[in-house]
Design brief:
The protein has helices spanning about 5-10, 20-35, 40-45, 50-60, 65-75, 80-95, 100-115, 120-130, 145-155, 170-175, 195-205, 245-260, 260-280, 285-295; strands spanning about 135-140, 160-165, 185-190, 210-215, 230, 235, 240. By secondary structure, the protein is of the alpha/beta class. The strands form 2 sheets. The protein has a 5-stranded parallel beta sheet with strand order 2-1-3-4-5, sandwiched between helices. α3 crosses α4 (about 50-60), α7 (about 100-115) packs across α12 and α8 packs across α12 (about 245-260). It comes from Ruminococcus bromii.
């Protein structure tokens, strides 16, 4: 099956109607703008009816215009510069309420993540993580934050965690060159994909390690080297990447490993609580304030 939109258009161009050809040419030249237009807006822009746009999507083999729009959005995700991202976001949100718009988009991405993530791959990833001799977590640039978040909790569950957040090729390979077939590599990358994350996953796979990709779609370059693929929908919000759904997926990964190692983890956290209480790691300030208020009310 042909999956790339521009390839479909090229193959179908001669059989398209005059109006459909106008749509096709506009998409080829301005897909970064077309990707976020409604069918009505796209039709208005090129001078055809909304129904012509819908028929065009069907003619290309898509199940309706939303599927065509999704294909355009997938195509541009790794190609837009930061400046282009700002322009696209401005066109999408315009004068709408930014807070509501961004939060609703994140809600939609979590919903899509639930629908698209493989439960089989998720369960396999949890099993491999729990039995691994060493767990390598790779995430650079904007994904370094969630890589460190995952590592923070995994380091309390396991004693064999190594997090790599450097984009330097030398530093990365210095940290992973001992990886073996008894280890796990968790690679995290979203558009614009890090070239180093792809190289790290390739290297881990070549050494026999179980490679787990946490990424946004099956066309991600991380997928080709992954044994388990965990899809978490991401998107751009101006110059920043929305990592709400990836973080939610990582939360699920942490919870699943805790439940799988429940007795061991419970014992670990009982000992940690003793240390935290002894060293005053967490404040009781809120409780003290509540107590003072209650005293004042007497």
């Amino acid at each position: 099956m042909i999956t790339h939109l521009l390839t479909r258009i090229d193959l179908m161009m001669n059989s398209l109607s005059k109006g459909q050809k106008r749509i096709a040419l506009f998409i080829e030249e301005h897909y970064d703008k077309a990707a976020f237009m409604t069918a009505s807006k796209l039709g208005e822009t090129v001078g055809v009816s909304e129904s012509t746009v819908v028929r065009f999507a069907t003619e290309l083999g898509y199940d309706g215009y939303p599927k065509l729009q999704k294909a355009m959005q997938e195509m541009i995700r790794n190609k837009l510069t930061s400046v282009q991202r700002i322009e696209v976001t401005s066109n999408r949100i315009g004068n709408d309420n930014v807070l509501d718009s961004v939060l609703n988009q994140d809600i939609d991405k979590i919903r899509r993540t639930i629908e698209e993530t493989s439960h089989e791959d998720f369960a396999r990833a949890v099993d491999e993580i729990c039995k691994a001799e060493r767990i390598y977590i790779f995430g650079v640039r904007s994904t370094a934050a969630i890589a460190n978040f995952l590592a923070y909790y995994f380091e309390m569950i396991f004693d064999n965690v190594r997090v790599i957040t450097s984009g330097s090729q030398t530093e990365t390979f210095e940290q992973i060159f001992r990886i073996t077939d008894k280890d796990v590599m968790i690679g995290i990358s979203f558009p614009r994909y890090s070239s180093m994350s792809v190289e790290a996953m390739d290297f881990a796979r070549s050494r026999g390690a179980h490679a787990i990709a946490i990424t946004d779609s099956m066309v991600s370059p991380l997928v080709q080297s992954a044994d388990s693929v965990l899809i978490a929908r991401s998107d751009m919000a101006s110059i920043v990447d929305s990592l709400v759904a990836p973080l939610s997926l990582i939360n699920a990964l942490i919870v699943a490993t805790v439940l799988k190692k429940k007795d061991e983890v419970s014992d670990t956290f009982r000992r940690l609580e003793l240390v935290w209480n002894r060293d005053g790691v967490y404040t009781n300030r809120e409780m003290e304030i509540v107590g003072n208020i209650e005293d004042d009310d007497k």
